[in-house]
Amino acid sequence: MAASMFRRCLIAAVKVKRLSPSFSAKRWLLSTAYSDTKAWEAREKEPKNLAVLANNMDRTYERNFPVSSLMMSQFIDNISCSEEVAQAEYYLYKFRHSPNCWYLRDWTIHSWIRQCLKYGARDKALYTLKNKVHYGIFPDNFTFNLLLDSYLKDEDLKSACSVVEDVMLQEAFDVSSTQILSLYALGSYLATTPQLTVSEERAFGASLLICGLKLDNSIGLTAQLLGNTLLGKVELQKGIFAVFKGMPLLWTRGYLGRALAVMESVAASPGEVKLPKDSLDFVNDALQQLSSTSSDSSGEESDKEEEQKVETADEEDQAERDRLSEYESRFKELIGQLEAQGKVDSEASFQSLVTTLAKQQLPSTEKPDLDIYESLLSTWEAERRMLIQREQDMWRKADEENRQRMIARADL
User: Fold this and answer.
1) Which of the residues 108, 168, 253, 347 has the least number of beta carbons within 10 Å of its own beta carbon?
2) Helices 218-238, 176-190: crossing angle, 10 deg rounding
3) What average pLDDT does range 8-20 have in this prediction?
4) How far is the C-alpha of 336 from the C-alpha of 172, rounded, in Å?
5) What are the Cα distances from residue 94, in Å, to 62, 89, 279, 311?
6) Which of 2-16, 208-222, 374-388 is least confident?
7) pTM of the model
């Protein structure tokens, strides 16, 4: 009887361990201290009635007056449920299309992301981030990290990579924690062998390349190799204009050549830098796919979009496509060199490399981030108080001018 009871308790304990978030959460991602809201919630706030604020903003817009950034900030800060998140999204859109659109405060953007996470509206945060032109959502690194980490811990890798794309578009890979989280998201998603569209390949490749340029090691070089390969695929399929349009990328042709240049640099390096075999296989598969596509479409006419391009640009794009066989033969040569030098890592994958990076180095990046965040909170609070004082002074001045006008009318 006792043995039977012990077995049942043991099974129950195993089930709890499997299902409980406290056991299953990836503790080597950002800690709970990083996403803790105590410091943020402890700041001085102005309790406001959202219905009154909404009415005031509507009346202000109707009179063609600009809504102040302070009023927008107060509205976001006083959200208390998911329904009010949707209401705030509307006013963020209105504010972005108003004369004061340039003055959306950094702390308001941070508050918006935090409120979305707090009230289960993370999809709203991502939507406004993806449509930043219409909402003005340009987060700082700390805010990016909160949203990115939230998706990673829920293993929503596709959405996490979507956040990384916006980090890339803002060219915000300068902070170590953002680099590590981004590479982990990209490497983990790539390991699932997703079927990417051409536009997704471009964004994914650009994210890998620009983030990889920040690291001068096996991980950084592998990211550059993969990024250049994906961009090279887009270049050969759609032309160079399709690669750099809307992206912080070089418009110079030859992205596949740059991928091979990464392999050359590793082969020429005297150090212990290696490239994982799965990433080299990825490059080989891409070259094979391009070769197959090129032979299948050799007799087909170009589509209307291609026909509308400038003739010289078409010739230059075609010249790059004609180099595909040269790239394939050069790739085989470089593979032979790397294998002969023992610089092909058959045991590690790109995913395992970025996972190890996150485990070993991410915890040490938290304290500098938190110190910067604490400083930002002080700066934001000082700026907020200055805006409150300025608004009060303006109201007093307006009241005084109105009183003077009333006295002047009475004297008449």
Assistant:
1) 347
2) 60
3) 40
4) 37
5) 12, 9, 46, 43
6) 2-16
7) 0.86
